[in-house]
Amino acid sequence: MGIIQNIINRFKQGGARMGFVANLNQITDHPKIGVNPNEYKRIEINREYFRGIFPDVKYRNSYGELLNRPYTSLNMAKVVSKTLASMMFNEKMEFSISKTSETDKEDNQYEVADKFVHEFLNQCKFMKSFEVYLESMAALGGLALRPSFENGKPSLSYIQAPSFYPLHSNTTDVPEAAIAIKTTRTEDNAIIYYTLLEFHEWVGEQYVITNELYRSETKDECGVKVALNSLEEYKDLQPTTTFTGLSRPQFVYIKPFGMNNKDIDSPLGLSIYDNARNTLKQINDAYDQFNWEVKMGQRRVSVNDSMLEGKTDLEGNLLRVFDTDQNVYVSSGDDADGANIKDLTTPIRANDYINSINHFLKMLEVETSLSAGTFSFDGQSVKTATEIVSENSLTFRTRNSHLNNVEQGLKELMVSILELAKGTIGIDGKHLYTGEIPSIDDITISFDDGIFFDKNAQLDYWLKAKSGGAASAEMVMQRALGLTEEQANEVIQQIQAESAPTLGALDTGMYGGN
Length: 514
Fold this sequence. Notes:
Shape: globular
Distance between the termini: 82 Å
Pfam families: SPP1_portal (PF05133)
Organism: Lactococcus lactis subsp. lactis
Strand content: 15-25%
Structural class: alpha+beta
Protein name: Capsid protein
Helix content: 25-40%
Largest sheet: 6 strands, antiparallel
Number of strands: 20
Oligomer: single chain
Low-confidence stretches: 11-21
């Protein structure tokens, strides 16, 4: 940032304090943003539960002194989010973009598009990153994906819920939004907070991206608008960029399935545990109290003061009766000689706490629509059920409901990637993509359902269907073994070749043979 621009920014900051320059306290105060600010307070609370870090517990000791101690949480918000994310997506996900003509079923009209999107996502390491950010989507209630090209190289940004601001309260879709990117800098030994707001808007049939940079000396406010070149990384960023020929926004917003019952007019999604926060608090409180009781319930033995004071040897050295690292023995306050020893240890109510936590875990399963027995607590850690989940289980249905939103979002992302590439000119002066743009219906996504089925039972089912004449060998290969149509036909031909009878010398002479 230049000296002149620095001076201008300081004048603006001073003008904002005096009321001469407009100061944006919160991002939601921007006139273009049409979302209830309370929605972001809700998201912040969900983020606190996801982090699992809470304020210290205040308590009074035996002398009436007010003390603090760390709060120990079980952090089931993290466990539930991770469990659901891992069930929805993994690296076995496959997709294809294809459309064949009626005359030639082998000719894929979108082969170039399919290859381009595969290469784009591979270069962005999408398969490894998406499951991680799906966890954030589940925990915070939404996730936006923004494809871009930086000097011709593919880039995919993941915008988490606290940084995504819809411009309109349309509960069915989010066609326009602002994306907040925050950075900090040290200027004159003071920390300065910058916020770049990237507005995505439709102006008629044109798609316009507008960039605004804000500067603040405090963390909790957006600040005053400054020039983009105030930061080195934004000096080449254009204030506005216009695209034509787009059918959809250059971002995709994915949210968990279900109605936002906290604000029915909000386009933002709910966290999967938004309606279970009371139960999460009960789980955390019970776990915290359990840990504190374990700590306070260690063995305590009361002895008289003379035993703790020790004795002095002939050389004047103090000889202790007990190991100095030992904290089992406490003073009884009795100075009389003699072995006045009393066991003060109280039993730990382990079973009571474990039963209480398991009860609350069952409530959490109900509130997050997961099958009974998904979680259990054994006194040391949470156990997640690993047994096979049937196709009709509540967990399977819940996962599929959320997965429908994810699948639709990924299809929209692929269309956005191709449209952006078609409108972007590379360093060689040519458009990055020149092929046709497929429709949503031309994209097929296959997710891995293997964790929900017993493979042996599934194979037995399809073999019985084949023997009963209800399924072909090709169908069995595809459904039970997960093979493609081409792979299934190759295996069938190989089996037929191996099972063909071998002709003897006499038969060969009579009937011929290879």
